[in-house]
């Protein structure tokens, strides 16, 4: 049960606001309430289109307790369906696969097209009878979930109530409009399993305040004072005015086309609420999709992109290893904050008015979605 007074305190001006109470990081019933309001009721990140590169490719993903599968249909469109047969609720796709014909239920062999239409119901009217006049199968196709792809991330609105994606995220789409170019996944995706509530990963990503102590190598050239905060409707994060391309002699990654001169030395890192963390640079980008696993565990799925295919493989190996190192440096921080939420005297903490604006913006978004 949410404490409405505590949520109202989150939405106070930053100098006197409190952070979200401990229950929002530990309590099972609070996690369930948040899952409904923040993950199922908004445009949440499910995966990336690169996970299903060819027609027929399908990947099962359970998100916020809901069994889904990501699919590229025969026409090349990416779709998301609830991963259940309409007959008796059997799971259809149990592992990543390429569907050569129809999507076949392993229980009674009901079959669906890659567009979700029910196309076969063997023996449904008795042995050898594949239809039954008493059963109308015309509306028994797979249950499709609203989805939208932006920057290769497949966003879903599972309960169907969110406004259109382009409207809900208009500000951040406009902010990065000049990066609206093809993204080429480099195949070097990796995942981290972290013992923390998913919101702590978002909070940490939003701010640069921790750089000198948690990322001393990064801070050695892109210093705390080189960073600026980003706050907007449905997103928050940080940018830097100092970005140095990774090089190997004359080798470097090609730039995205048509960028303004400021991106020669700048980069931005934005959390698109609730659970997608994006980074963009002149020559590469990344997407992190957070999958909550109960109130105290999170899987981070990291995907890296370039402006061209086969972008300098040796450099790409170094780049992937470098980013993995940076993200692994954050693990002890978010896990430490998770352990700290067991302290009964901790009241949600406070915010630095100068340094924590983006993190406070995320807390306010959570409180607002929960009715404060």
From TrEMBL:
> Which cofactors go with this protein?
Fe cation
Looking at the keywords, is Oxidoreductase present?
yes
Query: What does the UniProt keyword field contain?
Result: 2Fe-2S, Iron, Iron-sulfur, Metal-binding, Oxidoreductase
Please list the residue ranges annotated as the Rieske domain: 45-156
Query: Could you say which residues form the signal peptide?
Result: none
| PROSITE patterns given in the database record | RIESKE
| Name of the featured protein | (2Fe-2S)-binding protein
Q: Which organism is it from?
A: Jannaschia pagri
């Amino acid at each position: 049960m949410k404490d409405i007074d505590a949520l109202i305190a989150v939405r106070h001006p930053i100098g006197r606001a409190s952070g979200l109470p401990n229950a929002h990081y530990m309590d099972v019933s609070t996690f369930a309430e948040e899952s409904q309001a923040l993950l199922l009721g908004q445009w949440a990140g499910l995966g990336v289109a690169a996970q299903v590169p060819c027609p027929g490719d399908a990947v099962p993903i359970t998100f916020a307790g809901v069994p889904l599968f990501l699919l590229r249909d025969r026409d090349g469109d990416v779709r998301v369906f609830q991963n259940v047969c309409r007959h008796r609720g059997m799971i259809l796709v149990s592992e990543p696969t390429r569907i050569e014909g129809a999507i076949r239920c392993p229980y009674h062999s009901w079959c669906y097209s890659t567009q979700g239409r029910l196309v076969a119901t063997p023996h449904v009217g008795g042995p050898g009878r594949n239809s039954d006049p008493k059963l109308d199968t015309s509306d028994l196709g797979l249950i499709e979930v609203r989805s939208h792809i932006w920057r290769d991330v497949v966003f879903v609105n599972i309960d169907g109530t969110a406004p259109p994606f382009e409207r809900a995220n208009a500000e951040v789409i406009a902010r990065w409009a000049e990066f609206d170019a093809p993204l080429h996944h480099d195949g070097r995706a990796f995942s981290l399993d972290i013992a923390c509530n998913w919101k702590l990963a978002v909070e940490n990503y939003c701010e640069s305040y921790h750089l000198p102590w948690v990322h001393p190598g990064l801070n050695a050239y892109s210093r705390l004072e080189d960073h600026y905060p980003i706050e907007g409707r449905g997103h928050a994060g940080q940018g830097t005015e100092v970005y140095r391309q990774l090089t190997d002699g004359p080798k470097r990654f090609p730039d995205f086309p048509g960028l303004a001169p400021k991106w020669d030395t700048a980069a931005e890192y934005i959390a698109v609420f609730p659970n997608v963390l994006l980074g963009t640079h002149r020559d590469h980008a990344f997407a992190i999709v957070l999958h909550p696993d109960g109130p105290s565990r999170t899987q981070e799925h990291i995907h890296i992109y370039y402006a061209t295919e086969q972008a300098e493989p040796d450099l790409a190996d170094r780049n992937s290893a470098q980013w993995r190192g940076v993200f692994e440096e954050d693990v002890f921080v978010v896990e430490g904050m998770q352990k700290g939420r067991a302290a009964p005297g901790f009241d949600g903490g406070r915010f630095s008015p100068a340094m924590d604006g983006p993190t406070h913006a995320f807390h306010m978004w959570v409180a607002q979605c929960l009715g404060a």
